[in-house]
Design goal:
The structure is a single chain. This protein is an alpha/beta fold. It has three domains: about 10-65 and about 430-475, Urease, subunit C, domain 1 (Roll), CATH 2.30.40; about 70-295 and about 350-420, Alpha-Beta Barrel (TIM Barrel), CATH 3.20.20; about 295-350, D-aminoacylase. Domain 3 (Dna Ligase, domain 1). Helices cover about 30% and strands about 20% of the residues. It contains 15 helices and 24 strands. The chain has helices at about 80, 85-90, 130-140, 155-160, 170-185, 205-215, 235-245, 265-275, 300, 325-330, 335-340, 355-360, 380-395, 405-410, 410-420, and strands at about 10-20, 20, 30, 35-40, 40-45, 50-60, 65, 70, 95-100, 110, 125-130, 145-150, 190-195, 220-225, 250-255, 285, 290-295, 305-315, 345-350, 365-370, 435, 460-465, 465-470, 475. The strands form five sheets. Strands 8-9-12-13-14-15-16-20 form an eight-stranded parallel β-sheet, sandwiched between helices. Strands 3-2-7-21-22-23-24 form a seven-stranded mixed β-sheet, with no helix packed on it. A four-stranded mixed β-sheet has the order 5-4-1-6, with no helix packed on it. A hairpin with a 2-residue loop joins strand 22 and strand 23 (about 465-470). It starts with 11 loop residues before the first strand and ends in a 13-residue tail after the last strand. The model has no long low-confidence stretch (mean pLDDT about 95). Copper (II) ion binds near residues 72, 100 and 225.
Length: about 475
Amino acid sequence: MTDNVGDAVPSACDVLITGGRVIDGTGADSFQADVAISADRISAVGDLSAMRAGSRINVEGRIVAPGFIDAHTHDDRLLLSDPAMTPKVTQGVTTVITGNCGVSLAPVAGMEPPPPLNLLGGRDWFRFESVRQYTDALADAKPAINSAMLVGHSTLRAAVMDDLDRAASDAEIVQMGDLVDAAMAEGCIGLSTGLAYPTAIAAPTDEVVALAERAAAFGGIYATHMRNEDDTVVEAVKETLDIGRRARLPVVISHHKASGRRNWGRTEETLRLITAAQQQQTVDFDVYPYTASSTVLLPEFVERSERIVVTWSDAHPDAAGRDLGAIVTEWGCSVEEAVQRLSPAGAIYHQMDERDLQRVMQFPGSMIGSDGLPHDRFPHPRLWGTFPRVLGHYSRTLGLFSLEQAVHKMTFRTASVFGLRDRGVIRRGAYADIVVFDANTVIDKADFEHPTEPAAGIEWILVNGQPVWRYGAAVDNRPGRLLRRHG
Ligand code: ZN
Ligand code: CU
């Protein structure tokens, strides 16, 4: 605790949030309290009616919570191209973890990005030879919210290897390892992989362990879109745990799921495995609150889905939002040929079971991460809806867990796993990243037909003590910072 009982409560503050009900992020019960902010920190929590304040925000009947931390994003470029971060700010998000699934915008430059790197943009966006160059661009862009970045394994492979369809040589592993060292020294919090993707599927476990060891030497973590999330998801969890044990670092399983009808129910087994492993090593996971996934459109991902919707296509931009089945019928061709004609492209894959989803979300300590894809023409609604959907649909309507637990999964839990010190909690001394919302009305409005509708019920957001969102409109402040692990 930063709180020091001996310290007198200050007599004045910059901003006083009065009359709200505080959910502090730790999972503890909510309580009635005012929250005082001085500069970028929370300076007092309690009955502060006598305190002098530069400005007051009366939020009677509302919840005051730590700003949400999006545990899994692909916002590396959005922070630069839309620094207001509208899809995230409208959900109450004050920090995003970038560089997931093996894909980071740095350090690689001057190549045509292969899928899935192209989820972040085309060749012109891959222009950062070092993480330092990227963080300089971030400082220039001045995003509204905070970010913490992972360095992506597929990005490293693209930077070092001429052919991604094979294992890296010893010399290439050393080269990638040196890039990991530099990335960690320049501000990354760990390494990510996307071992199911064509850019990394040929990488053996040993290659990943060698790079994870480099991140571990800097106190970093390992986040992974595992080698498989369908028929061999159990083996993939075992590989992940093995990597964490061998490289001696905490692991985060990204967007945990069991895909494909024949694998529905298998999260019982994976969660049992994870629970057992948690006795020996640090392992966590994030989850998004939908039964459809979204990524690049690839022939190998098509077969296990119930239904596929195109999210973008370079060759056929008008296909965005359309059902792949309908396109196949219209074109009178095979699915394979349609995929080929649409590529490079992205898609939504309807392929999970609601019971698996609820089981994974309910797991103690699971974190909420959107996995939103901000540059898709017709994106998966998770980009705009994830956090209010967990609060409004899964907690309030379905009662899957308490509001306090829901907030915990998107704040203090996430800050603890990613090592973001004094974030994700409402207490004296913590950074003033704060969201004010209406627990009775908060809900996602984005759905598969209208994927970019902003959520309802999010009223105020403050980042490092400064308002960036107020009653449905952005405030022109850009207080976001790059966060480091244990920094
Ligand atoms: Zn992924
Ligand atoms: Cu992802």
